[in-house]
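Exercise 7. Given the components listed, write out the predicted structure of the assembled complex. Treat all entries as one system.
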Amino acid sequence: MAVGFPTKVTYANGDVFSASDINDTNGTINLLGQSVTTSAGKNAVINGGMDIWQRGTSITTGNYVYTADRWQTWNNTVYTVSRQATGDTTNLPNIQYNLRFQRNSGSTSTTPTYLAQTLETSNSIPYAGKAITFSFYARKGANYSGASSTIPFQVRQGTGTDQNVIAGMTGVSDVINSSATLTTTWQRFTYTATVSSSATQLGFFFIMTGVGTAGANDYFDITGVQLELGSTATTFARTGSTYGGELSLCQRYYYQHIDANDKPVMQGGYFTANTIIGIIPLPVTMRTSPTINATNGTNYWVSYFNASADTFDTIVFGIVNGNAVNVEGSGNVLGTVGAATNIRSNNASAKLGMSAEL
Amino acid sequence: MINYTEKASSMGDKYIQADLDDGSTLFIPLDPANSDYQRYLKSLDEAATL
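Answer.
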């Protein structure tokens, strides 16, 4: 709302409009028509738009199994989490993808199954003692079996440091404990509450509990998840603003280095005739020293050195920190001590990822 | 139930190895801030109380 009228009506090129040019005794200028829609960082939920899927775009649930980046499942193995195109520019603000949380067709499991995200302490503390608004877009599949078409969810707070919301947080309590009633059309759901002034941790989860035998479309879709300061749900925005920014934020927690055949793994050298060592720099500094998750097998890797190829089976731990991973090649390695080598994947199933998730 | 094994690299750096049902292997650093290492320590505590 404007608070006064300009006292100066004619401006020459180069004149500067200032507060003294306004007939307003309070001396306050409010801007008209400004709407912040894409400010990076206002949303505490990383990958709330379900853009980043480094581990794959269709993953079976399990205990502490990650699906879309930053999105973790728990308590059941008969669900599939997949990336879907929203294909809806009417009911969604131009969000490209959603996460589909689906009980597999024919399953009779009625075990509650969780979809969760935990915020780091460093990203939770700014919300302590403040009003927050939690919002998301969701819809159900035609055969969604959850009771009364609802999806229960909880936003939780704790007083520990970097603890997982599923594994348990010290001093845990609910900030929001509610449920959304879904239809087959996208809806936005918004909830406002106040975080405890002593909170050092935030996390949240959705719980789907299937009933009876799952049909072909026993799922809910979700996207545009946002947790922000204030009592109003503003337009959804990625935390990292752009796709690249969001990917970098995700890579603080997980980095998929290899997931296909004939991809560059690292430069290295023969430490012994039967052991290769090499270093993989990480694209961003990870939250902590990462776990290496490797899928190895017979001849899954190949070393090119001295104009020859040396296939081998296994990549194992060397030493790690948040900036780089030192790994060793072993298992049928046969080379020349001291020779430099270029390592590639040699099988479509070969995988190498680094995890620093909470 | 994950089976953990304590191992060391060729250069003597210790780590924890966990073989998963999906055929992949976790190589876990001995870092207290690493959540996989925390789960490993928790499994030791649980085993000790059985």
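Discussion: The CA atoms of residues 32 and 38 of chain B lie 6 Å apart. The beta strands of chain B are 3-8, 14-19, 25-29.
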